[in-house]
Design goal:
By secondary structure, the protein is of the alpha/beta class. It contains 18 helices and 18 strands. Strands 1, 2, 3, 4, 5 and 6 form a six-stranded antiparallel beta sheet that branches. Helix 7 (215-300) runs antiparallel to helix 8 and helix 7 (215-300) packs parallel to helix 14 (565-577). The radius of gyration is 50 Å and the shape is elongated.
Length: 682
């Protein structure tokens, strides 16, 4: 079995616990070398971005520190200038005066002091005139040390042609500033900083400037670049090593995933085989069991002495118990496979509870118990729910209550709980309380677990599979509700479950909603004595009372379409008891041929739901019904024979029987009641 052949629900359950993306074929299909290269490039790209960010941040910090130091140095220089003295220097002839020499000596001392931590090339002061910027103080020695043909020293009143906007802005704003970009000339690379010189009134009368040689700064930047480059080289080497490692790991992962997929294919194939086996065994078990129960039912209607009747009743009870066990196992298998669906329809609350009470009445009377049912006046007469699931829940809970109660009784109470603020709908709350053996507190947490028994001897004492309450909880959740339990050992238990309460109008006519829990004729449910079997006739069938048995003789033959010998034999016994002819065939084509006969045309057709000879399993009952009706020149009643109640009523058929046939139910199908015929005639 291949992965593609496994059902999608099984795949979803099997892959839910695995890492997300593990089965991404595009990723897992890549060659290990390609994955290694991509991983290496990704690592290198990540490391490159990180190193580039490191380099850029380091360079920015160096520049910010340099500018801050240069701005501070310019401010220190400006504080050493005497404003009054500085304003007195207006002509180059004053440079020979002691006052000038003292002033430039102070500037030189400041330059030397600042150069202990950096190389400050020039310090100077300048003033602004309408014509431009002019030098005043410059401690640079006279001469042409750079051999550019220009005097190195700036004299008082020399024009400063290279004055930039930053210098001019300091004159305007009085705020210290630093050039944005360094100046590169024959002296090298330098960056200038400026600070205002203020008089006693706070007016800016001059600007002190310092030029910082950037040789050391450039060396720091070069070192930072070397570190970044070394980081890139290291990242490249590590990326190569990491890429190789990832490539090898990917190859190993591909092998592991391949082995895992193979193991999963085998596991899912086993699960699918188990599901197929359960689906097959359901028919294989129910078919002979229905035959046994049907034959026993016929046997009980024959003259028997007391001992024989007791033995037949024991066979009947054992068969019923076996059927319930099989139903539990198949229900749980269907729940585990994810095939549990909800089918909503109108449900009559009174009939719902009445059917449960009728079903358990014989057992309650046998054990001398009481079974009380109480309904809150606020509960709706009709509400929307899944009748089959609701019936299963009530049957499980009431059945447990009756089974584990030896004296006292069982009480079923239904209340309507109005929606709280913020909730969208009301709820119907069901209470099933008994006076039975109860459950200990430590076992309450496990009571809803599958295969759980309250004690190790429960199966021997009471029977059962331990699946009933687990199925009940799942069904409650599917219907949008919850279930809980309170219990006291030796004093009884109370199970509480709720479902959404959505009131609906009563259905009108025979084609309305199916009555709760009252399967159409022939079900395994025992109807109340005063109730006749209920059918769901097809609205397209026009009846002029062709089904009544002629006086003193048999009517038209009943046609059974089934390959099952046991079913044929059982129907033969029942029809013989009813003095009704029976014909049978094993295919739809043969059934159409028999129906098309002008003489002795069959009026009642029983169609087995199992696979017929030469055909696939029935998947479109409505089309099958139309084919059979079209083959007969006379109106026919089509009755579906289902393996179990869970199969659901097929569309297009007039009635449903279950393969555990009883004489009264088959007679009700062959000879409908006048009430049913009147409803069709109307």
């Amino acid at each position: 079995m291949s992965w593609s052949s496994i059902p999608s629900k099984a795949k979803k359950r099997a892959t839910a616990a695995l890492p997300k993306g593990l089965f991404n074929s595009q990723w897992m299909a890549l060659p290990p070398a390609g994955v290694g290269v991509m991983a290496g490039l990704l690592c290198l790209l990540t490391a490159g971005v990180a190193l580039w960010s490191f380099y850029e941040n380091g360079l920015r910090l160096l520049k910010e520190n340099l500018r801050a130091d240069l701005r501070a140095s310019a401010c220190v220089l400006a504080t050493t200038v005497d404003p009054a003295e500085h304003q007195a220097f207006t002509d180059a002839s004053q440079e020979a005066s002691p006052t000038y020499r003292n002033a430039v000596a102070r500037l030189e001392n400041i330059r030397v002091a600042l150069s202990q931590g950096a190389n400050y090339r020039f310090v100077y002061t300048c003033v602004r005139k309408p014509e431009g910027i002019y030098f005043v103080l410059d401690p640079t020695p006279p001469g042409d040390s750079d051999s550019d043909g220009v005097e190195d020293k700036s004299h008082i009143g020399d024009f400063y042609p290279e004055a930039n906007p930053r210098l001019r802005r300091v004159f305007d704003t009085g705020v210290p500033d630093v050039d944005e970009e360094p100046v590169r000339d024959s002296w090298g690379s330098a960056l200038s900083g400026y600070a205002p010189v203020r008089d006693s009134a706070g007016k800016v009368i001059a600007v002190a400037g310092v030029d910082l040689e950037l040789t050391e700064f450039d060396a720091k930047i070069a070192q930072l670049r070397r570190v970044a480059l070394a980081g890139v080289m290291s990242a490249a080497i590590l990326s190569c090593v990491g890429g190789v490692a990832v490539g090898y790991y990917h190859r190993h992962l591909q092998g592991t995933v391949s082995n895992l997929m193979t193991a999963m294919d085998r596991a899912l194939a086993g699960e699918q085989a188990k599901s197929d086996f359960m689906a097959t065994i359901s028919h294989e078990l129910r078919t002979p069991l229905n035959g046994i129960l049907g034959m026993v039912a016929l046997l009980e209607e024959t003259p028997l002495n007391a001992r024989q009747r007791e033995q037949a009743a024991a066979i009947h009870r054992s068969g019923d118990l076996l059927r319930l066990i099989i139903n539990d196992i198949l229900d749980w298998s269907r729940i585990e496979s994810g095939n549990l669906e909800v089918s909503l329809s109108a449900v009559n609350l009174k009939e719902c509870l009445g059917e449960i009470r009728s079903w358990f009445r014989p057992e309650v009377e046998r054990k001398a118990l009481t079974l009380e049912v109480e309904t809150d006046p606020g509960c709706p007469a009709w509400f929307e729910a899944d009748p089959r699931h609701l019936r299963q829940v009530l049957m499980h809970l009431t059945g447990n209550a009756v089974k584990f109660t030896h004296k006292g009784g069982v009480r079923i109470t239904v209340h309507r709980k109005t929606a709280e603020e913020g909730k969208e709908e009301d709820h119907l709350v069901f209470f099933i309380k008994d006076t039975g053996i109860g459950v200990s507190p430590e076992q309450l947490e496990e009571i809803f677990q599958p295969f759980f028994q309250a004690d190790s001897t429960s199966t021997r004492h009471y029977g059962g599979t331990g699946l009933g309450l687990a199925i009940t909880r799942r069904l409650c959740r599917v219907m949008g509700g919850q279930i809980s339990v309170r219990s006291t050992p030796q004093a009884g238990s109370e199970f509480t479950f709720f479902i959404p309460c959505i009131p609906v109008d009563p259905p009108s006519g025979p084609d309305g909603a199916e009555k709760f829990g009252k399967p159409q004729s022939g079900t395994d449910t025992a109807p109340a004595p005063e109730q006749a079997p209920a059918f769901k006739p097809s609205s397209s069938l026009h009846v002029d009372n062709p089904f009544t048995m002629p006086a003193g003789g048999a009517g038209p033959p009943v046609l059974l379409v089934s390959p099952d010998r046991m079913l044929i034999q059982l129907c033969g016994f029942v029809c013989k008891r009813l003095q009704q002819p029976l014909e049978h065939c094993s295919s739809i084509d043969e059934a159409c041929r028999l129906l098309s006969r002008p003489a002795r045309s069959c009026r009642v057709v029983l169609v087995d739901s199992m696979q017929l000879e030469g055909t696939e399993p029935i998947t479109d009952p409505a089309a099958l019904a139309a084919t059979l009706r079209g083959a007969s020149p006379q109106p026919v009643r089509l009755v579906a024979l289902l393996t179990s109640e869970e199969s659901g009523a097929p569309g297009g058929f007039d009635a449903v029987l279950y393969r555990r046939l009883k004489m009264d139910t088959l007679e009700a199908v062959i000879h409908p009641s006048p009430a049913w015929l009147d409803s069709q005639a109307g």
